[in-house]
Design goal:
Elements (H helix, E strand, L loop, with lengths): L1 E4 L3 H7 L8 E4 L5 E2 L5 E2 L7 E2 L2 E7 L11 H4 E8 L2 E2 H6 L4 H5 L4 E8 L8 E6 L2 E7 L7 H11 L7 E3 L14 E6 L3 E8 L1
Parallel strand pairs: 1-12, 3-9, 4-14
Antiparallel strand pairs: 1-2, 5-8, 6-7, 6-12, 7-9, 10-11, 10-13, 13-14
């Protein structure tokens, strides 16, 4: 799981951050991944777990240094993701590994859409049915195809690897017993409860 941070201007503004000069990459381990309906287990070391609705790119073949015009050849499809983040830990740790990589911190699904143009899709997130995030992939600083090309310069990508493309504004905290739904146009809805 390769995450991209600060890729929507409105989210950068709400977090009081600066726009990076290039895509800001971080990694999430495979133990962070869970499926539709699976519970997000809120870690004991954080009291501030935040939801982040995101478009996820699923890689379909081994690739390295992919030119922009060849990106569609290496992408298997797209799905929904929730890049959960321990905000308090993110502020205190120099690296984001613990804040973004804890077990169950990356729900993905509900399936992979293989015939989709990722450049202008509505991305929405709802907490217990209340709309909290409402953006479009057209608002990304670096589009999905640009991110695949960029990430492939650093890492050889393998089938099943996933690139998270960033989140629009509206992030907030989720607590025990609440549920977050990520809905992306042309893909569907990913829904996961949180448990302490």
């Amino acid at each position: 799981m390769v995450g991209i941070g600060r890729n929507y201007a409105d989210h950068i503004q709400e977090m009081g951050s600066e726009t990076p000069a290039a895509p800001l990459m971080f990694l999430k381990p495979n133990t962070s991944v869970i499926g539709p309906g699976d519970p997000v287990m809120l870690p004991s070391f954080s009291d501030q777990i935040s939801y982040e609705a995101e478009l996820a790119v699923v890689i379909g073949r081994i690739c390295k240094d992919v030119p922009l015009e060849r990106v569609d050849d290496v992408v298997f499809g797209y799905t929904c993701a929730n890049d959960l983040t321990a905000r308090d830990v993110q502020k205190t740790d120099d690296q984001w590994a613990r804040a973004k990589g804890f077990d169950t911190s990356c729900p993905i699904g509900p399936w992979i859409e293989t015939d989709l143009d990722p450049e202008n899709l509505t991305v929405r997130g709802s907490l217990d049915g209340e709309l909290r995030q409402d953006g479009s992939t057209s608002d990304m600083i670096w589009g999905a195809r640009e991110l695949v090309a960029y990430v492939s310069q650093a890492f050889t990508l393998l089938p099943g690897d996933v690139i998270l493309t960033g989140t629009p504004a509206g992030v907030g905290l989720i607590t025990d017993g609440q549920r977050y739904d990520v809905e992306i146009e042309g893909i569907g809805r990913l829904s996961n409860p949180a448990r302490r």
